[in-house]
Input
Amino acid sequence: EARQALGGIYFSRNRPGQTHEGLSKALVTHGVLILAGLADYWRDRLRKMAAACWEVGGWVLFGVDGTKIDCPRTAANEKGLGVTGKNNSGPQQLLTCLFHIGSGVLWGWKRGGIEGSSERGQLLEMISWLPKGAMLLADAGFTGYDLLKALLDQGSDFLIRVGANVHLLTQLGYAVREHKDIVYLWPLDKQGRSSAKKMPKSLERVHKPLVLRLIRLKDAKGRPVCLLTNVLERSRLSDAVAERMYKLRWGVEVMWRDLKQTMGHHKMLSGTPERAGAELDWAMAGLWMM
Output
């Protein structure tokens, strides 16, 4: 029916292909370029259609989250996508998405094989899509010096949960005005040192520490929750407002449910990495359009 409709609209053009095999090959060959143009258009449309919900409390909020998508257990997929080795899992793709908090609508995504990809790396490829002055909300796992510095360099704000495995420094004396909530993210490699006992061999390898604010909260069960932000002034972002904003990022769970359960894309059907990637891209495109 879609083919007949296109033929009727563009009757002077070549006829669309007739087989699913041909469509799959075309999506692998041309799909990425087509999607790039569509995604730019959809982002522009979303910004105009969001209207009153474009901002939340004066902030343009975006969330980020990742998930894993199963693929058929073929030799090509295992070699090209990799397997995690957990629970006898087969080949998987890692999918990381940006979404607009106010509307709950997609803003963009990156995908790749489970081996050689990371949520942090995929997010780093997407931050240039964020509008100027946007604030990114993220869970633990996205806290990394290079990523946060890239966000700061392009003028983006962030509010990110930090886990116990992240080492933060206090009372470093680097900030002009310090208070009890001021912390520094300055890993040893950014200090130009290989260990805490060694001094840097060259100042060329020393990078500036990131001056951040640590917000200490408690969840519904009374467990501590720590958030990192580059907004140092409480007058701009109070602890209470930060807590309410961070809770909004859980809307992404609805999006994953729509993709995997409502649309039935919990597992791809393609037997090669290239086609599995194209299949996932256009599943996400369908979700975005709906």
The two ends are 19 Å apart (CA to CA).
